[in-house]
Amino acid sequence: MIKKKFRVLKRFYQISSSLSKLGFYNTYEYFKILFGLEVDETVKPKKIRETLERLGPSFIKLGQVLSTRPDIVPQPIIQELIKLQDRASKIEFPVIRKILEENYGDSLNEIFAYIDPEPIASASIAQVHIGYLQTGEKVAIKIKRPDIEKQIELDVEVLEWIVSVLERHFSIVKEFNLRGFIYEFKHTTLMEANFEIEANNIQIFRENFKDSEIFYVPKCFEDITNRDILVTEFLKGWKITDVEKIKELGFDLKKVVENLTDSYFKMVFIDGVFHADPHPGNLFFLPDGKIGCVDFGMVGRVSKDLKKLLYEHIIAVTSLDINLAMRFYENLGMITPKTDIEEFLRDIEVFLEKYHNKSLEKINMKEMVLDLLEIIKEHKLKLPTQLAYLGKTAINLEGVVREIYPEFNPTERLKNFIKTSTLDYIKEKSYEIREMGNIMYDSIFRVEKLYRMLIRERLTLRILFKDMEEIFVFQRKLMYRLIAVILFSSLIISSALFYIAGMERTGDTFFIIAVVWGTYSMIKIIFFRKSVS
């Protein structure tokens, strides 16, 4: 326990020293600006981002996760954090070699013919080297940084300590639920550090794009991949933003961004699983004109229900249907006790009016997403993780597309996938109507079957609610007495009618029966009253 506290104090001192060199002489002051607890006009969002990059791998990941949380971080800082890319100090090759030997043992030289000592990328969680298998295939070898999980655990301890201090001085911090956010950050980052999960993600995307002529996912060598090392096919190509090279190869830039946008819309609206980190370091233009994608550690998922709600929100924008828009926020559980519903409704109405008269080609996707994020923060809504990932991905994608072809608007391509979503939506609604019809149709037969059981088998239904039993007995006896009175009246009336018709004998008979029945009924009624009292 003492050793653990010492490690936390030591790490806190390291962070404080790094911040002081960057002009932040109080660790808490930096985090107050990051979380929007205080505003310092002299501190630009760019400096906040650069500081996270210099604080090390855990804090780079922290910034990336914070970029999906407009309910915690001010929007100007979010737009800067979105630019965060995995860049970290190089790990020397002897350390990399040792990790490889620990994982493969004597089989290392039987698997790899050559591994380039110079890395092609050094990121927050792993470093990537080019290698050649004994079969001659060129591969990318992703090696996890040594003790990265311990580093993440330690930095999380420091962050929890900082948050506890902020909570003591700022009551609003508890409303942010920063402890919950830190737990989510830890969980997400540790999952990214498990390359077996990433290997599984790669297989999913390869299956989804196996017939694609525009998007390519590299093969993963699962038999030599484990938690610490990921081996994939090496993609020979150029950064997706290398505009001059793409033009030199004779490809149309507009077609390239259309293909990129279509691939991502397919992931979201058709596949339901998307690559959540589309920055230029992860996207490549391949010699055959396809777009290659790497790094499947950060992946988002869109459930069937979320897809339906997203589609309904698009309908709400185009039809100015505020009730349909509200279903989106209600069904996702975004509205909290702190949300002022009337003010929220007014802002949603303004949002719908702003976009509903515009065609898809004229809607700026980044602007629309940022408007929604501002509404979410303003009205203290709870932002689901997958929706946050989706928003971050949309902004990142829009940034990449504009860098390649500034005149292109990604929402131009949305209509191609809205058609598919419309058919899916109609099918879904048709299915729901059919199910309701089946239930109603089935209910008719169930009622008839119950009726037949009651008639044929003389099934008695007993209500076993003890407190209600006396009421039911009372009502039953009352009903019998009412029937007796009606029958007595009918007999008297019948007797009179027979007399009028000249049938005295029959009239006398009915009169006698009426008297006997009336006397019997009176006795029963008197007895009934006594029993009730």
Provide tags for this entry.
533 residues; alpha+beta; 3 domains; 5-stranded antiparallel beta sheet; 21 helices
Overall average pLDDT:
81
The amount of helix comes to 55-70%
Count of separate structural domains: 3
By DSSP (H or I, 4+ residues per run), the number of helices equals 21
Oligomer state equals: single chain
Largest sheet: 5 strands, antiparallel
| Strand coverage percent | 5-15%
Cα separation of the termini = 77 Å
Give the tally of β-strands: 11
Radius of gyration, rounded?
36 Å
Low-confidence stretches: 456-467
Report the principal-axis shape: elongated
Structural class: alpha+beta
What does this 3D model show about the protein?
There is one protein chain. The chain is of the alpha+beta class. The protein has three domains: 124 residues, no CATH class; 223 residues, no CATH class; 67 residues. It is 63% helix and 8% strand. The chain contains 21 helices and eleven strands. The strands form three sheets. Strands 1, 2, 3, 4 and 6 form a five-stranded antiparallel sheet that branches. Helix 17 packs antiparallel against helix 18. 28% of the residues are buried.
